[in-house]
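Regression check, iron/sulfur cluster case 371:
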Amino acid sequence: MLAVGDTVVSSWDLAGRPYALVRESGTYRRALDGRFLRKREATADGPRVRERLTAAGGAPVVAAARDEATAALRALEAAGGAGEAVERLRAVVAMDEAALARDAARFLAVCGPVGILPPDQYLSLVVRITEGCSWDACTFCSLYEGMPFRVRTRREVARHVDALQAYFGASIALRRAVFLGDANALSLSPDRLLPLLDTVAEAFPRRPLYSFVDAWTGSRKAETQWRACRERGLRRVYVGLETGDPRLLERLGKPGAPEDAVRLVASLHDAGVAAGVIVLLGAAGADRAEAHVRGTADVLAAMRLGRDDIVYFSEYVSGAARRTGSANASATEMPGEAVASERRAIASAFLGAHGGEKPRLASYDLREFTY
Ligand code: SF4
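Current build output:
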């Protein structure tokens, strides 16, 4: 990490790939596939910015950061400096625009597309034991639309892990946890899942494992099965509750009932695994808005969430809705203030009835995802 003055901070991994560049014009997060997200909070001079940039669009900011690294390197070398700082700055300087383009192509060949991660997992190492989503029919979600669901064999996962280790090299140090992709990876039966977890845990023995599961298949797993996953390193499972209103859940195209998520979280807790519960905001429409707030608060309260758990609030984004199949029931986005008010209503109703240590509450914004 290199800071220049009070407002410019650049962060690279040990291979010299930039991943966060803070400038006056905003914070630029570079994904491993070479694209960028520019973010800036609202100021007196302008509104909040959230903008996707291509590799070419982010190149001037990377070039400026590299120039700062070059100047810092020259200053250290002139002072006769050596050691870790010099070595790291040399890696940054060597990773020029052409090298970054080659690196992005290599990453995509090794990992392929990463659909989404929970916000606390953006710096995890994604290991894809499955591809796509086993359901792929929720009306508000097109993350894996058109990608056939497939379970990778143990041999494929072993090869994938080897390729990831070769790609990251020493820079894997930045990735302190492993996220098992894609969606619903943990829905596999134990005879298929556990050997895959063994392969991942053997490759990354001290890294905690995280993943998604859908509530209707996850709730069918017994506590002993979750315990077997925990023994292999599983620490938190993320589940899309979306709503505690069964009628809205059905309208959103999700099978099962909100109580499935309650049973799933109870089994996870019994097995010593934490939960990340995702609530969808802004999709209820006027007719289900009240039932959504009340039902969701009730279901969250029934989950007995604690300090290690997270409740994520995810705003409905019309651009992320399903493009094919059943008509989307919530085609328009709610104004930001209405979404914030829905979140406050759910949180206060849920926390008002909550005893003991409270879970963390956080935003899960699809528009801010980068990996
Ligand atoms: S919300 Fe989850 S279960 Fe539904 S289609 Fe998207 S990834 Fe699949």
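Comparison notes: Residues 2-105 form one domain. The first strand starts at residue 2 and ends at 4. No diff flagged against the previous build.
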